[in-house]
UniProtKB/TrEMBL annotation:
Keywords: Membrane, Transmembrane, Transmembrane helix. PANTHER family: LIPID PHOSPHATE PHOSPHATASE, PHOSPHOLIPID PHOSPHATASE 2. It comes from Kryptolebias marmoratus. This is Phospholipid phosphatase 2b. It holds the Pfam family PAP2.
């Protein structure tokens, strides 16, 4: 037996493979648990940040809808552009919303399901991959829709342009020359609504939704067999948005310039939203497969346990000599 006096000693690093299988499995489970907790917190914070961005975008739309008091612009009683009769809506709000929801459900849900199944897209979330993919697409869509509607209402309530059927809705008792303030005998709610001509909300919302979906199809439906299917779907989407705008002019709800500006604004918001907010055209690297067990884990991902001991006192190095144990 030989004894040596040392103040400290550093052993060689110990690899995980040197331990028993049960210990390796326990270490891997703890490592995976800590990774999932950290990733889960990141997902929650990301969703919270997304919600904090969506809510302010809807504030102008919500506030203006509650206040509901547009600018009362004076009119000329002989203005022929506001003397059209009252006609029912060809495309109502309910009909437009139903078509948009159906298109989103069919196109986005089927597209994301196919791409997740083929592992063309993936998320770092440990939650369901399909739900995570839908959350990103729908969240991006809602953000742009609220921005578009807020911009539309800002213009409507600030400018207060009379609709083409304003005189029929207002039904003034006396009107001669220029009237800075006009006394209407019609319903207050209808008169207020008839001052929101510029610009068309149907046109801007419909064009935003359809251009957004058209760009989604362009990014997601990139297979060779879809070279004709892709533009066909895009044609019908944009054609419906244009048809909605045309009906607003033919129903005497908006002037042609209101429809034109609404279509341009909706398309512009959709393009900017897809370009700078969404990840539709983002190039993704191939996904790395995650190990199912600790023994199948790649070598570089195994934890390297560095054990350092600081010992004080006498250390004895025992050597096997005859007569010793």
């Amino acid at each position: 037996m030989q004894c040596y006096l040392k103040s400290s000693r550093q052993r060689n690093p110990l690899q995980l493979s040197e331990f028993s299988p049960s210990l390796r499995q326990s270490v891997f489970k703890w490592k995976q648990l800590l990774s999932d907790v950290s990733l889960g917190c990141g997902i929650v914070s990301w969703r919270a940040r997304g919600l904090l961005c969506v809510l302010p975008a809807s504030l102008p739309f919500i506030i203006l809808s509650i206040v509901s008091k547009p600018y009362e612009r004076g009119i000329y009683c002989d203005d022929q552009s506001i003397m059209y009769p009252i006609k029912p809506d060809t495309i109502t709000h309910t009909m437009l919303g139903a078509v948009v929801i159906c298109c989103i459900v069919i196109i986005v849900s089927s597209g994301e399901a196919y791409l997740v199944y083929k592992e063309k897209i993936y998320s770092n979330s440990t939650f369901n991959q399909y739900v995570a993919a839908l959350y990103k697409v729908v969240g991006t869509f809602l953000f742009g829709a609220l921005v578009s509607q807020s911009l539309t209402d800002l213009a409507k309530y600030t400018i207060g342009r009379p609709r083409p059927n304003f005189m029929a809705v207002c039904a003034p008792e006396v009107c001669t020359g220029y009237m800075p303030v006009i006394n209407c005998s019609g319903s207050l709610k209808d008169v207020t609504e008839s001052r929101l001509s510029f610009y068309s909300g149907h046109s801007s919302f419909g064009m935003y939704c359809m251009v957004f979906l058209a760009l989604y199809v362009q990014a997601r439906l990139a297979a060779k067999w879809a070279r004709l299917l892709r533009p066909t779907i895009q044609f019908f989407l944009v054609a419906f948005a244009l048809y909605v705008g045309y009906t607003r002019a033919s129903d005497y709800k908006h002037h042609w310039s209101d429809v034109l500006v609404g279509l341009l604004q909706g398309a512009l918001v959709a393009i900017l939203n897809v370009r700078f907010v969404s990840d539709f055209f983002k190039k993704r690297p191939p996904r790395r497969s995650r190990p199912d067990a600790a023994d199948g884990e790649e070598h570089e991902r195994k934890p390297n346990l560095q054990i350092t001991e600081v010992e004080h006192g006498n250390h004895c190095n025992f050597r096997n000599h005859p007569g010793t144990f």
